[in-house]
From TrEMBL:
Keyword Lipid biosynthesis listed: no
UniProt cross-references to PANTHER family, sorted A to Z: CALCIUM AND INTEGRIN BINDING FAMILY MEMBER 1, CALCIUM AND INTEGRIN BINDING FAMILY MEMBER 2
Gene3D superfamilies with a match to the protein in the record: EF-hand
An MF annotation (GO) of this entry: calcium ion binding
Keywords, comma-separated and alphabetical: Calcium, Magnesium, Metal-binding, Repeat
Domain of life: Eukaryota
Residue ranges the record marks as coiled coil: none
Domain EF-hand, first and last residues per copy: 99-134, 141-176
Descriptive protein name: EF-hand domain-containing protein
Length: 184
């Protein structure tokens, strides 16, 4: 059905199906989307590495306030540039069939701007800033909101959210799954 000549063997597709939450058909579909970002490059080399600014042309990433952070978290060399395999991982984590716990793990890394495995006050501030853009909270509103989050979720009172503490926040947020979804 107009799939054209596949750039993948059956075996490769089977591997991708085993490693992601996608069916083979969805893997091929993801590849079409990846190719559409840079047909000239990906046509030659199906796993070509695309610079982050190209990957950010993907419509759902372009409108996502964390688009650049998402690219960096999934990029195999953490600079935001993505190969097809990085992109496939990203789409798979954002798909409907992915368990909430897996999404939470990746969301935590997206929000952990300084990469110290904790969501500290600066991470929370940056996260809230992006979520509320283009409107900015006043310093006072921001401080108040962060204080509320910590009072509610910082169970060991160390002034930051560990992954376990963050997971509890996610469990109480009905909007989280909707936010962490990308339609392929
Ligand atoms: Ca951090
Ligand atoms: Ca804590």
């Amino acid at each position: 059905m107009g799939q054209g000549t596949s750039q993948f063997t059956d075996e490769e597709l089977q591997d991708y199906e085993d490693l992601t939450y996608f069916t083979k058909k969805e893997v091929l579909h993801a590849h079409q989307k990846f190719k559409a970002l840079a047909p000239e490059k990906v046509g030659h080399n199906r796993n070509a590495k695309l610079p982050m600014n190209k990957v950010l042309h993907y419509p759902e990433l372009r409108v996502n306030p964390f688009g650049d952070r998402i690219c960096k978290v999934f990029s195999s060399n953490q600079d935001g540039d993505c190969t097809f395999e990085d992109f496939l991982d990203m789409m798979s984590v954002f798909s409907d069939s992915t368990p909430k716990s897996v999404k939470a793990e990746h969301a935590f890394r997206v929000f952990d701007f300084d990469g110290d495995d904790m969501l500290g006050v600066r991470d929370l501030r940056e996260t809230i800033d992006r979520l509320t853009a283009p409107h900015r909270l006043t310093d006072q509103e921001m401080a108040h909101l962060i204080q509320n989050i910590l009072t509610e979720a910082d169970l060991d009172d160390d002034g930051a959210l560990s992954f376990a503490e963050f997971e509890q926040v996610i469990d109480r947020s009905p909007d989280f799954e909707r936010m962490f979804k990308i339609q392929l």
